[in-house]
Amino acid sequence: MPSEVEVLRELAKAYWAGRDIPCPKHPGAKMIGSFVQTTAKDHIFLTCARANETITIPQRPKQLEFQRQQVEGFVENIQRGDANLCYRCQARLEVATNENPNTGVTEFTFTCTRCFSYGTWTGLPELAKIGSAPTSGTKKKSGAVAD
Ligand SMILES: [Zn+2]
Ligand SMILES: [Zn+2]
Questions:
Q1: Tally of CB atoms within 10 A around 85
Q2: SS3 content of the chain, % helix, strand, coil (to 5)
Q3: CA distances from residue 135 to 76, 97, 138 in whole angstroms, order as listed
Q4: pLDDT (0 to 100) of residue 140
């Protein structure tokens, strides 16, 4: 079951991509969307074509896909035990992980709980290192303390 944040993320993605927007509550029904700009709160307003039902998705700032390097930084923060906040609106990020038990390769999906920006990163979490060269032989010895 996707979380509520994931449901809203997918609805916003479909809206901005110009795709059909399936109603999360009525299988087979579509939603009609419009982007509403107000001085207080930009948002996407969705109306179900079948039932008298609407969904409002805050969109200030507007949803974006995070860059891969940013997402790798989020994974690195998790490894260090640090919290992750959205680059765009400073809200908390929801994280979903899907680990392959045989290889340890894990897919991380981050979603902002406020603007529904998102990004995924797949790999071995301990190898998440922004700024390091991916294939060169310059890997530092683990155990060396930087500070
Ligand atoms: Zn509906
Ligand atoms: Zn955000």
A1: 15
A2: 20, 30, 50
A3: 18, 25, 9
A4: 44
Q: What is the number of residues in the chain?
A: 147
Q: Measured in angstroms, how far is the CA atom of residue 22 from the centroid of ligand 1? A: 8
pLDDT digits (tens, 9 = 90+) for 122-134: 999 999 987 554 4
* pLDDT tens digits, one per residue of 16-56: 999 999 999 999 999 999 999 999 899 999 999 999 999 99
Q: How far apart are CA 22 and CA 33, in angstroms?
A: 11
Distance from Cα 55 to the centre of ligand 1, integer Å: 9
Q: Give distance in angstroms: CA of 52 to centre of ligand 2.
A: 29
Ligand 2 center–CA 85 separation, angstroms: 8
**CATH match of 68-125 with 2.20.25:** yes
Give 141 or 17, the one with higher predicted confidence. 17
Nearest alpha carbon to residue 109 among 133, 131, 93: 93
Query: What pTM, to 2 d.p., does this model score?
Result: 0.84
CA–centroid distance, residue 122 to ligand 2 (Å): 21
Residue span(s) of the chain under CATH 2.20.25 come to: 68-125
